[in-house]
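Archive record:
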Amino acid sequence: MTMRSDITRALAEWIVSCDLASIPVEVQKEGVRTFVNWLGCAVGGTRHATVDSALAAVTPFSGEASATVLGRGERLDALHAALLNGISSHVLDYDDTHLKTIIHPAGPVASALLAVAETRPVSGSELLNALIVGIEVECRIGNAVYPDHYDRGWHITGTVGVFGAAAAVGRLLKLDVQQMTWALGIAATQSSGLREMFGTMCKSFHPGRAAQNGALAAFLAKAGFDSSEQAIEAPRGFAHVMSDKQDYHEILDGLGDTWEAALNSYKPFACGIVIHPVIDGCIQIREELGDDINRIACVDLITHPLVLELTGKTAPKTGLEGKFSVFHSAAAALLRGDGSPTAFTDEAVNHPDLQAMRRKINVTTDRRCHEAAVTITVTLEDGRRVEKHIERAIGSLERPLSDEQLNAKFRGQAAAVIGQSACETLIRKAWALPDLARAGDLARASLPH
């Protein structure tokens, strides 16, 4: 394609000019759904050991206690709160997914926005506008470099999430085009996150750090801190350094007319997205077999090679590792009918019954099988066989979660952390985001009472 030298600035111009009135109603609705899902995940994950460790590490270095660690009583400065809330929103691997790129869009963007919104007057409609813009930016940049960027080993949620957070917070700070161009450049030079970290605490650190660094980029730019003005497209810029694919049409074509933010999806299961068809199918087989589920001799899965590449851990030792084990996930779905966070605890991955079941599971890869599909064959001890083919799992764009299912997911995570009464109040406020006078009140509403 013809080389352009104004990609970063052109994107900045759109970010600065895109107000809520120019965003279609259906995209705004999906933005609210995205926010509701993110908030439930952030509160649901806030008591995880990963968050405890991060909070203990950064608290001594926090500035003015101006923003809330969601679901907890602690308060930090806005940048550290963005970090912690980004971690908690992703630590259960239960958050949203842009399926074209496997980006988890809300973690970096919403975590930065709500923390900053606590420090200044920001209406719910302003936050929604910034959220949608930030998600659009990160997903379009992701489209431009995916899949090569991901295949190299970059965790794309972290690497492009920083752009989304910078754009979104820049909207709240009312950056001009020059400042927004700098903010994108400052974000670009902080882009990071390695797939090697999957199955460890560092995976959720990536969206948290993207939220923190993106917000910092916007504040620096506001103060006149400059950067390259071709940070995305320059020969030594983000796209060329971090990918062999640079399709800038994906960033600018149809910008403001077609919306990646409308293509978000929400996980019904708390693990890597490529395992979801397996869990969906195994739960259905469990329901069909009834008591015979305890008479399984072997389970054969036919999947795309990416499934084993991402989730091939045969003997996970921790709950975080279990989220990247198709063997454990299938076992938990068959024996417990579970794909929620309770299936991915240290206790679950080390339970003898689940360990025994996962040794019965065999995986064959076939590139002709779509990444979002699976064929499952269960053979019983008496030789009977049950087969299930899942073309697209629940939670996909073809089978999306309803608002009612999002509420059930929210309650299933948050009520155990903050109590039923606080949970119901928080759900109502989250759905009312466009009408809130002060969006920052949502953070304080996330505390137990």
